[in-house]
């Protein structure tokens, strides 16, 4: 799956991203590979902030999937 998105305030475009998600079967279930190519336009958004937000999103998704599997 490939998708793009932007982040903005009412006054400025902060960033634009192109993300790729690849799901493959493995012995433990499903492996997720995520790649994001980002352009930070105003200096207000940084790689560290984006990485932390993305990690939080995947951790929350993992908890939901673990509850569903139980």
Give an overview in words.
By secondary structure, the chain is of the alpha+beta class. Strands 1-2-3 form a three-stranded antiparallel β-sheet, with no helix packed on it. The protein contains one helix and three strands. The chain is elongated.
The topology string of helices and strands comes to EEEH
- The secondary-structure class comes to alpha+beta
- Mean pLDDT score, rounded? 90
- Helix content range: 25-40%
* Low-confidence segments: none
Radius of gyration: 15 Å
Which descriptor suits the 3D outline? Answer: elongated
Oligomer type:
single chain
Note the topology.
Elements: E1 2-8, E2 13-26, E3 29-40, H1 47-69
Antiparallel strand pairs: 1-2, 2-3
Gist of the model:
About 35% of the residues lie in helices and about 45% in strands. It has about 70 residues and is of the alpha+beta class. It starts with a strand and ends with a helix.
What distinguishing features does this structure have?
70 residues; 3-stranded antiparallel β-sheet; 3 strands
